[in-house]
Design brief:
single chain; 314 residues; alpha/beta; Rossmann fold; four-stranded parallel β-sheet; binds phosphoric acid mono(formamide)ester
Length: 314
């Protein structure tokens, strides 16, 4: 694996190998007082975030540190990006400094793919083979989120193939939804998208899933439900339906959560808008897998760095 840009790059074997490595790394660190493996000693990992993040940026930094890589964080506001430096110049500059891996989040869909192309073509000049990881590009993809969600579903359900997973809410603006639909379908799940018609993208009928607008009707038959964040920052034309209408039709209230089978986990990629997307009692309840997702995010990102920088393990 040279870069991780899209879950479409992963077939079932490659995705399962990453999830298995994540499980093994979690086991290797379990109960250790010092959570440090020597695996990536001497490697340099740079996070370059042009959008805000808590979970993805911090967990990649922890993942690198726990594997003894040197990790550096670059944010748009604190770098020469704020003076107008382009994405290409910034990336090639970091590559010339010896970055083995650049993890990028960018508001433009396709930014990670462009970056990977520049890195591959610039390798002779920069002298470094720099891998790119897509940490979220516009409304396109967020592959490591889908991998950590799959790790959490495996943990909670014992497997993914044949399970029915509901993904609920603002699909239109969600890179998490797109990556999850692709990855879960690749791993053999049946995926149901539940959303208001105004928050579905054009072409969703080509995605490997079923679409519904009726959350109450779908919940009793789901093995797990994944609530999405409403991406108000990407709704330049205003919020439709209104926040109240959204909560009434698509929020996971306590009453609604009771329609799920008893052992069905509730996932949310975070950050959560409590009260609109998910009731606080559900987010903090026994079915909630939200903090397990965050924990698995560190191990999955360790696995991604491992496969990119050390090669897939035997
Ligand atoms: N789920 C997710 O990507 O969260 P952050 O924006 O905090 O990284």
């Amino acid at each position: 694996m040279r870069h991780l840009l899209s879950v479409a790059d992963l077939d079932a074997t490659a995705a399962t190998a990453l999830l298995d490595t994540s499980d093994r790394l979690r086991q290797a660190l379990l109960g250790r007082e010092v959570r440090k493996l020597p695996t990536l000693r001497g490697r340099t990992v740079i996070t370059m975030f042009y959008e805000n993040s808590t979970r993805t940026r911090v967990s990649f930094e922890i993942a690198g540190k726990w594997m003894s890589a040197d990790t550096v964080n670059v944010s748009a506001s604190g770098s020469s990006v704020s003076k107008g430096e382009s994405l290409r110049d910034t990336a090639l500059t970091l590559s010339s400094m010896g970055a083995d891996c650049v993890i990028v989040r960018h508001p433009a869909s396709g930014a990670a793919h462009r970056l990977a192309g520049w890195m591959d073509r610039g390798q002779d000049v920069t002298g470094t083979h720099t891998s790119i990881v897509n940490a979220g590009d516009g409304t396109h993809e967020h592959p490591t989120q889908a991998l950590l969600d799959a790790a959490t579903l495996r943990e909670r359900l014992g497997g993914i193939a044949g399970r029915r997973i509901g993904i609920v809410g603002d699909v239109l603006h969600s890179r998490v939804a797109r990556s999850n639909v692709l990855l879960l379908a690749t791993l053999g799940a049946e995926v149901v998208l539940v959303a208001p018609p105004t928050l579905l993208p054009v072409g969703v009928d080509q995605w490997p899933c079923r679409v519904s607008h009726e959350l109450d009707a779908e919940l009793p038959a789901l093995d797990a439900v994944m609530m999405l964040r409403v991406q108000a920052e990407r709704m330049h034309g205003g919020f439709f339906p209104s926040a109240r209408e959204y909560a009434v039709g698509y929020g996971l209230s306590e009453t609604r959560a009771a329609l799920l089978p008893d052992d069905a986990p509730v996932l949310h990629p975070g950050p959560m808008v409590r009260g609109m997307e998910i009731a606080p009692a559900v987010a903090d309840g026994t079915s909630s897998a939200v903090l397990a997702q965050v924990r698995n995010g560190v191990h999955v990102r360790m696995a991604v760095l491992y496969h990119l920088l050390a090669g897939a393990p035997e």
